[in-house]
Automatic annotation (TrEMBL):
Residues 175-227 form the tRNA nucleotidyltransferase/poly(A) polymerase RNA and SrmB- binding domain. It is an enzyme of class 2 (transferase). It comes from Paenibacillus auburnensis. NCBIfam families: PRK13299.1. Residues 407-468 form the CCA-adding enzyme C-terminal domain. Its EC number is 2.7.7.72. Belongs to the tRNA nucleotidyltransferase/poly(A) polymerase family. Its cofactor is Mg(2+). Residues 28-148 form the Poly A polymerase head domain. This is CCA-adding enzyme. GO terms for molecular function: CCA tRNA nucleotidyltransferase activity.
Amino acid sequence: MEWTMAPSGMAEAAGKVIASLLQSGREAYYVGGCIRDELLGRPVHDMDLTTSALPEEVMAMFTRCIPTGLAHGTVTVLQDGYSFEVTTYRTESGYADHRRPEHVFFVSDVKEDLRRRDFTINAICCGLDGVLVDPFGGARDLSARLIRCVGQAEERFDEDALRMLRCIRFASVLDFAIAKNTWRGLLRQRDKLAHIAVERVRSETERIIEGPHPWRGLGLLARSGLLPRGKAPFPWTGTDLAAAAAILPGIGELQSARLRWALLLHALGQSAVSADELLRAWTFPGATRSAVARVLRVREAWDAALASAPGGSGAEEALRRRWIAAVLACGTEAAEGWLTLLEAVPQAACVTLGGAQPPGSQSGAGTAGEPAMPFRQPAPASIPLRQNISAGDAHASAAPLHIPPSRLRSWMAGMPLSSLAELAVTGKELSAALDKRPGPWLGELLQRLLHSAAAGDIPNDNQLLLQEAKKDGFK
Ligand code: ATP
Ligand code: MG
């Protein structure tokens, strides 16, 4: 098959590196992910090159280069502002830790190099002449939208257990099926995931959840049973994950990666505190952890508000105040996030802290990888509240009062301020006006003023706030 790399600054720069290697009598090709993505018409974010030149020859040939992994044959060559990993053709052997080869041998046949690669779609290379070298039918599998191991799947996953997650990642991101033998091999080797570092598991899982088809990825993860077998704590079974996934077909509609994680942890029944601990154990950065936990705190505050809401005509106003209190406690961004999440996945409103219920039927492991249908009818995109029956209306049923996310959003939009920093009075001013030394009372007073001003009881005005503070109730 003949084909040309789409013109781009990066392809041109990589082409110059290949041309230099060819001029010195060596072979060199574009290889792996860049060919796969080019053939699929997907954007190419980096280009790897493979060559018959030995690493020291590559080092000698290019003035600007970095010895990234000489023992494994990799040199990073800098060209026209781009950097390219140039790796010598190699084979590998002895994967004692189910991740890294113990021995690497440089070889002279590019097909040998392609054989060590994980999937057929990643084992294609292409020269400057546009001729594809594709000994394992990668281009055919790309057309068939299939992930297939190069060689025996069971063996390949045993050598490097990370490949199992890469398999699910590629199937999910590309929305490809997984070849039967490859899936069978994965199921047989899934216990080996225990050998893979938490960071690697996290990074692949992130790419699945944050990619274009996270629901498909969740279905495959659930069916594979991989995550409960990894080093990273995962206190659920594949069935629990399938139950959570079943109510999340809309997860891919969330643009924010953090909201996707919040939604998943919510569906798995995690509290804000336990979600934070879990994300820490999974080595997520602190900023992600706290943003996700804050969204779950909004959920908790709102659940508590609903659980203890008074009945009768004042119910809605009481809820408005509690919602405002939740926004003040967790921040507008987290509150906004929680509402966005509910709007994208209305079913999330019916998940309780225990997590989603298992679906009625479990389909066996297979290659289709879709989660089962939702186990119950989606709830309306609103939050039910039991209305108290008024004294004179003994026959009235406890009709649920629905507070749709749009109402919560408009309550939030109506808040004149949402943080202490915006309050038109300072602690210092209050302390002076009340002639009292600062103490814990001051923080409490500031909070009361903030809540009153945010709820619209008093204007956010310096004089009026001071006046309010002087009233008996605020002393
Ligand atoms: P992406 O960069 O989008 O993750 P990629 O295919 O380029 O996709 P890399 O991790 O950059 O993935 O690896 C480059 C190439 O190296 C792959 O295309 C594949 O040929 C090979 N490769 C990477 N990881 C493995 C592995 N664990 N086992 C075997 N081959 C691998
Ligand atoms: Mg790559």
